[in-house]
Amino acid sequence: MATMAVTVGDHDAMMESLEIIAGRDHDIVPPFFARFLSAHPEEEDKFFNPATSYGTMTNEIMTTLLALANDEPWVEMVMRMQVLTHHGYGGIELQRYRDVLDHFIATLADLAGDEWSPVHAHAWQAQADRLFAMIERAW
Hints:
Elements: H1 8-23, H2 29-39, H3 50-69, H4 75-87, H5 94-112, H6 118-138
Helix pairs in contact: 1-5, 1-6, 2-5, 3-6, 4-6, 5-6
GO molecular function: heme binding; oxygen binding
Protein name: Globin
């Protein structure tokens, strides 16, 4: 899969959407995990300490996507390590990574409400597609 061009615009749009969500005083973690676990209840047992791991995972997704939008060189190496680590959690299917990214973006869109724009959607999706390509190579 070809790597999409990185633009400062994606990072700016992503940050703008997060500022909208923060301005609405929304915590991303509970609705993201409610959405994800509703779609995949079989995954709940893989989170040994939900009080910590839910927030950690959400932060890692957000941080990684933002870093990718800035073309940070460490992202691919970290994703290889994450995939290897997640293999130890019991056979996580490749499609599940895609699902997580899709649920994350859908959660952001819901939380931003009517202020979520096509520019926001494109920026997050472009970086999620790039990240999934890295995951796919490492998987």
